[in-house]
Amino acid sequence: MFHSIEKQLSHAFRAHIQARYGIDLPIAVEQPRQSDFGEMAVAAAFQLAKQLRQAPRKIAAELAAEIGPIEGVAGMEVAGNGYINIRLDRGAYAFGLLRGDAQAPIARDDKIIVEHTNINPNKAAHIGHLRNAALGDTFVRMLRARGQRVEVQNYIDNTGVQVADVAVGFHHLENKNAADVKALIADASVRFDYYCWDLYARISGYYKDHPESLRWRAAALHAIEAGEGDLAELAHAVADAVVEAHLATMLRLGVEYDVLPRESEILHLRFWASAFELLKERKAIYLESAGKNAGCWVMPGLSEEGKVIVRSDGTVTYVGKDIAYQLWKFGLLGKDFFYRPFKTYQDGRVLWITTDDPAAEPGRFGHGSRVYNVIDARQSYLQDVVVAGLRGLGYDEQADQSIHFSYEMVALTPRSCADLGIPLSEEDKKRSIVEVSGRKGLGVKADDLMDTLIAKAREEVDSRHPEASAGERGRIAAQIAIGALRYFLLKFTRNSVIAFDLQEALSFEGETGPYVQYAAVRARNILRKLEERGERSPDFAAELGREALARQLQAEDFWQVLLAASKADSAVDRAVTAGEPAHVAKYAFQVAQAFNNFYHQYPVIHEENREKKVFLLWMTDFFRAQLERTAAILGIEIPDYM
RNA sequence: GCGCCCGUAGCUCAGCUGGAUAGAGCGUCUGGCUACGAACCAGAAGGUCGGGUGUUCGAAUCACCCCGGGCGCACCA
User: Fold this and answer.
1) What span, in angstroms and rounded, lies between the C-alpha atoms of A439 and A156?
2) In the 3-class helix/strand/coil scheme, how is A197-223 assigned residue by residue?
3) Cys staple from A10: which of A27, A211, A262, A468, with CB 3.0 to 4.6 Å?
4) Helix-strand-coil percent breakdown of chain A, rounded to 5?
5) pLDDT at A300
């Protein structure tokens, strides 16, 4: 509702300015600094002032006088040096909300691909991975809330160095063969992804002390690539088991995927060979004849020496494969995976995985019109190489539609390491922040963090609701803990480094997920209490007319609070444009805050005046709906009680 | 050396793409549970927006230069 008036206003001004002054100007609708200035403001007069060589205030007066009536707008006034402040028709606005006028999002045919999570399947997930998944998943929910078709991909690098390293660890450090590892995976008393976490740190340390053992890695990579022998079998068993663990971890957070494209299929289906031909044919890469890159296929332009894509021994670098993969996402490779269903989520969504078996299903994924790669900021150079690759092939449009959805890392402070019992080197102790490192086994495991949060929420729930069953208390504690975690990961904007603080992450008060949940629970409680008292929830549309709404909304308090709650679409829209899930989180908090204030000030059920009571109930129900919707976009569930 | 990110209240962070008197949470202090359960609400204190120069009607926001912190810049991924 708010959003559609914003758009109407913007169009009306743009058209009027075009007709009146012959200037085409995109009009931004702003929010006035103070609420008594009105609900919206247009600053177009400032932009016009320069071109028209007239005082902004004079132009603003002209605009306001001449633009004519706009639906839903009750008045305009010129303020300050040239602002046009807009006042809405409160009764009409509320009546529109009550009737549910918010227009359905426009369904689009084109598909957006969002790739996120992408964890190397060789060890347990840590908080850094959680930030990636929470950002990616929330952005997907934001896009879908706007009616956009979205495909979620979680790329699995099951043949890479990191998996090879753990395979080497099993083989050389623990003398285990594929059968032993499979037995370990089947052993319910062992958390296999945690086991690998430790083993990965061990083998990394071993390489450091015994550099000559790096040939084990090379041999393992070779075996995995050939897909033959016990070591390859072992590596696949590791990757498959760890992928399952990651999917389970992410499901706890409410994160689901559509397809798992795997590196092994990119290899077996020879994606790279096709990309290589394209790159050579269109001269996006060249064979270097001299210098330090002699004998390599190099992509020029990114640095003086260019970026090596194919090594002098003929093997392709990771970026090369990534270019092939990016081409596939746009449907430009001329090759496709085969797919089989991998699992079905509780909500019925089917997760597919790639396969090289031609008997399986062909093309149902890829062919995106835009691609978001949720990858941390440290990899921006490589993302630039991939985009340069598309450009080199002449795919400028797709290059423009390749978006590196980058975010800064989650780091630990030396203090939080001490709290968590993580030992640090003397060097690290002096730093302001310490990078999470799988290689060093340094970090907070995702499942451990969730367990800690759930235990803390459980204490709170237990003390408040001793009468509830243990199972129910557990379920609610989990909802609260996950709400707290998702909000914590989302409240920071993407390019802010999160210095992880356990105390802060564990907080359920103030600007947190549980605060938002609590407001929604309170709204539900009012409506439930009403029915417990034997009263029916009124038929709002029948009892509240436009005049009644206008009458009640003369109270500034009610109007401000309703206004705040009605801006969800506008907030999501801005957040999508800015690429910032944090904006949605902030908005959810503000709505919750407005409701908590309303809740405290106005007893709804005990209101004596019938019209006012129905109005307050409607406000409560509207808040509830908006809070639930916004929380759902953040992936936060609302518990039955708190 | 080159490139990217960050620097805003004691702490952690917003600041809607250049607009009106710079905001929030935490912490501190004061007050509020016989209302729909206080995981809440109200109020107070707290700022040279790292520093400087410029661009213009207007700069936390844009440009340039410093200072401080972080991250990249492989025939690793």
Assistant:
1) 19
2) HHHHHHHHHHHHHCHHHHHHHHHHHHH
3) A27
4) 55, 15, 30
5) 87
Helix residue ranges, H only, A39-191: 44-52, 56-66, 90-99, 127-145, 161-168, 178-186
User: A496: Cβ under 7 Å from strand B?
Assistant: yes
A451-479 pLDDT per residue, tens: 999 999 999 999 999 999 999 999 999 99
Helices (H), A253-293: 263-268, 271-281
Instruction: State whether A489 and A512 are in the same domain.
Output: no
Nucleotides of B under 7 A from a protein CB: 4-6, 12-17, 19-21, 23-27, 32, 35-42, 57-58, 69-77
Domain assignment present for A317: no
Domain end point (choices A88, A104, A132): A88
Question: Do A516 and A625 belong together in one domain?
Answer: yes
Window A249-288, strand B contacts by Cβ < 7 Å:
none
Residues 413-432 of A with CB under 7 A from strand B: 431-432
**Strand B close to A318 by CB, under 7 A:** yes
Q: Which of A45, A71, A88 is the last residue of a domain?
A: A88
The answer to the question of residue A484 being in a domain is yes
Q: How many domains does chain A have?
A: 3
pLDDT at A375: 96
Q: CA distances (Å), A223 to each of A272, A311, A316, A353, A364, in order?
A: 19, 19, 16, 23, 31
Q: How far is the CA of A428 from the C1' of B51 (A)?
A: 29
Question: What pLDDT, in 10s, does the model give residues A394-453?
Answer: 999 999 999 999 999 999 888 788 878 888 888 888 788 888 888 888 889 999 999 999
Residue A359 reports pLDDT greater than 70: yes
> Is strand B less than 7 A from the beta carbon of A43?
yes
Same domain, A12 and A72: yes
Has residue A191 got a pLDDT over 90? yes
